[in-house]
Amino acid sequence: AQSVTQPDIHITVSEGASLELRCNYSYGATPYLFWYVQSPGQGLQLLLKYFSGDTLVQGIKGFEAEFKRSQSSFNLRKPSVHWSDAAEYFCAVEWEYGNKLVFGAGTILRVKS
Amino acid sequence: NAGVTQTPKFRVLKTGQSMTLLCAQDMNHEYMYWYRQDPGMGLRLIHYSVGEGTTAKGEVPDGYNVSRLKKQNFLLGLESAAPSQTSVYFCASSRNPGLAGAAISSYEQYFGPGTRLTVT
Q1: DSSP string for A37-58
Q2: Which of residues 25-84 of B touch A (CB under 8 A)?
Q3: Hey, where are the domains in chain B?
Q4: Architecture of the CATH domain B4-99
C-alpha cells in the first residue's frame, strides 16, 4: 500500500534556528505533494503544494519544500523559526484521481526561546 | 464565506449510543471528505463523496455511515459508538479536479476545525 513517512515524531529547535522536517513517500506514479500545519485545537492549513515544474516550492509563512524524485522525498524547510511556528506538521500525498490524500503521522515542532 | 464548518465541536458518548456529525461548506465544492485523526497516525480517510447523492468508502469506514443529500452538507453517523471511535474528526472539501480545464488549485482540500469525540 502507498504510504507516507515522517520519521521525526517530535523536533525541538531554538527560535531563530533553521528547520527541516522530513517526508518520504512510497514509490508510485507522479504524486501531488502537500504540507499542512495544525496549530493546537485548530484544523489543518495548507502551507504549500507541489504538482509539477520547479522542484523547490515556496509556501506561506516563509516555508519552502523541495521535491526530490530520486529520493522520494518532499522535505519542508524554514531558514529562521519563530515561536509562532510551534505546531504539528503533516505531509500528504495524492497518487490517484479522486483527491485521496494519504497523510504522514505528523511531526510536532517545539520552539524554545 | 465561512468555509468548512463542523457541528458539534465536542461530544461525549456512552458506548452503544448513536450520533451524527454535520459538515457544511459554502464554497460550492463537489468533493467532501471525513477523516479521523489519532495520535501518531495522522489523518485517515473514513468516507468521501464526489457529488450530491454519492458516497464511497475510504481507508477506515467500518462503524461509520455517511450521507450527502445536499451538495453543501456531508453527514457522518455513528450507529453504535465504541471506545475505539474516540478521536478527532475532520471534514474537508475540494473542487472536482477532473473537470475540463480544472485549475491545479482544485486539488487543494479545505478543512473544518474538527470535532473532538470521546466514547466512554
Answers
A1: EE-TT--EEEEEEE-SS-SEEE
A2: 31, 33, 35, 40-45, 48, 50, 58
A3: 4-99
A4: Sandwich (2.60)
